[in-house]
Design a protein that fits this description.
By secondary structure, this protein is α+β, with helices and mostly antiparallel strands. The protein has 5 helices and 15 strands. The strands form 4 sheets. A 7-stranded antiparallel beta sheet has the order 4-5-6-10-9-8-7, with helices on both faces.
Length: 304
């Protein structure tokens, strides 16, 4: 097995009262004891060029600088290599070519789809993202008091690593957050892309270290351009007489309105810790109150 490197990831501030918890586990596709990193990577089937995503929702037109893994191989990476709990429901994952997904500098973009309905973008010009950031930070600060009571590490939203930007023509929203966990030696980067479609939102999340931000910022325009909804699923094809409208707008997407359905993708990047920790996904409701909290539960078991 590969040694595990753990860091905290902010999943989001939710609009609804829900919570999902995961206990640490190993998937059926986990590499056998003694499998080398090279053997594990060789077992993955990377794809390039035009990719039809599952469910026929969207396509990727990837240049040679990127490769795609289908949901099954993505699960192998998330669970067996990166130490996430099993059962992640994704549409696959995008990786930069030439960088092994099990290397120290690895990063990738997890793709999921949330069919909550058509997101109205009428609030695009009225959102004050500086005010929204303050509200999110205040919510995290208040939540940390309860987090620590439950034995979880504190988690802070440092600020925008890249301020939210909405492309009105292509209906794509992107932003990046800088996060810091108590005791972490380096801050975490959470880079987000949301492509709005007829019936829902295509979600692309890149998790990395803040030290990698310039590399990732340089690559994100390529990923943005490569992602397109298929005919029948585009934003322009919304039909109010038959299609559902989402109960939130762009501001809620940034704050984390659909985060409960994104799964737990805590990329394991920071220094190897002396103790194994269990990732737990909870819920923080910014406007309605706090029920459950996201954190890494302290554990005295030794690291693998």
């Amino acid at each position: 097995m590969f040694k595990k490197q753990w860091c905290l990831l902010l999943i989001g501030l939710l609009l609804a009262f829900q919570s999902i918890g995961y206990a640490e586990g190993t998937g059926s596709d986990a590499p056998k004891q003694g499998m080398t990193a090279e053997e594990f990577v060789a077992s993955l089937k990377f794809q390039k060029g035009k990719i039809d995503l599952p469910q026929g929702i969207a396509t990727l037109n990837l240049p040679d600088s990127f490769a795609y893994l289908n949901p099954d191989d993505t699960e192998k990476v998330l669970v067996s290599a990166w130490g996430n709990p099993p059962g992640n429901k994704t549409l696959g994952m995008i990786f930069p070519s030439g960088i092994s997904p099990v290397s120290q500098g690895a990063w990738g973009v997890v793709i999921t789809y949330d069919e909550d309905g058509h997101v109205n973008d009428s609030d695009a010009d009225s959102i004050n993202y500086d005010d929204l950031l303050k509200e999110m930070q205040e919510g995290m600060q208040a939540a940390n008091e309860e987090r620590k009571k439950q034995g979880y590490d504190g988690l802070a939203l440092v600020g925008w690593a890249e301020k939210p930007t909405y492309d009105k023509t292509n209906h794509k929203l992107y932003w990046a957050k800088e996060l810091n966990a108590d005791g972490a030696t380096e801050h975490t980067l959470n880079y987000n892309i949301r492509a709005l479609g007829r019936k829902g939102v295509l979600v692309l999340n890149a998790i990395a270290l803040m030290s990698q931000i310039e590399d990732i910022k340089a690559e994100m325009p390529t990923i943005l351009a490569a992602t397109e909804f298929t005919k029948g699923n585009t934003y322009a094809e919304f039909d109010s007489s038959v299609d559902k409208t989402a109960e939130y707008g762009l501001a809620a997407l940034v704050a984390g309105g659909v985060a409960a359905k994104l799964g737990l993708f805590g990329k394991l990047f920071a220094v190897i810790l002396a103790f194994k920790k269990v990732l737990v996904l909870g819920v923080i409701a910014l406007w309605a109150g706090i029920q459950k909290l996201l954190g890494m539960k302290k554990d005295k078991q030794q690291n693998l």
